[in-house]
Specification:
By secondary structure, the protein is of the alpha/beta class. Helix content is 49%, strand content 9%. A five-stranded parallel β-sheet has the order 3-2-1-4-5. Helix 7 links the parallel strand 4 and strand 5. The two termini are 28 Å apart.
């Protein structure tokens, strides 16, 4: 009997959801079929949506509504106090959070949740380009051996969109 490789589930960064919502071929207000199938894939557990990511979505009413619907269905995972504590540890070791704006706080929680649950991370962020800059999701995922992807095409194929 052959062992088939375990398929990695990914949790999504807010920038992915916002990008999907704005991209004309699959924009929420233009492609209900995509978003219905996308929600079905979430319900089947093929990807993960975190509460802290949902809270980052503030200016796209359609996307906010879609996320609220997923939450009402019980499909949005909550980060724990342990995830938050680990996020603080991650930031202490690999400075990610902008001290002035507190931007990227959620990124540390995202990585902590992925690490604790053996998940990958799908983010549109690029690695930092200078060692004096703050660490980015891809940088810390690489260090912690957490699979990360940036390609929507790869991710969508993984959850059944061919």
């Amino acid at each position: 009997m052959m062992n088939t490789p375990t398929k990695i589930k990914y949790l999504l960064d807010a920038n992915v959801l916002i990008g999907f919502s704005l991209w004309k071929p699959i924009a929420l207000n233009l492609n209900n079929d995509f978003w219905s199938k996308f929600g079905d894939a979430l319900a089947r557990g093929e990807w993960v949506l975190l509460d802290v990511v949902v809270k980052e979505i503030k200016y796209d009413r359609d996307l906010m509504k879609w996320c609220q619907e997923q939450d009402k269905k019980g499909l949005v995972k909550k980060i724990s106090d342990n995830n938050k504590s680990r996020g603080v540890e991650i930031n202490n070791q690999y400075k990610m959070i902008n001290e002035t704006t507190l931007k990227s706080t959620v990124d540390t929680y995202l990585i902590a949740y992925a690490e604790a649950n053996n998940l990958g991370v799908f983010s549109r962020e690029s690695p930092r380009i200078n060692s004096t800059f703050l660490y980015k999701i891809p940088d810390v995922c690489e260090i912690l051996n957490i699979k990360w992807i940036k390609s929507p095409k790869f991710f969508l194929k993984e959850i059944g969109f061919d």
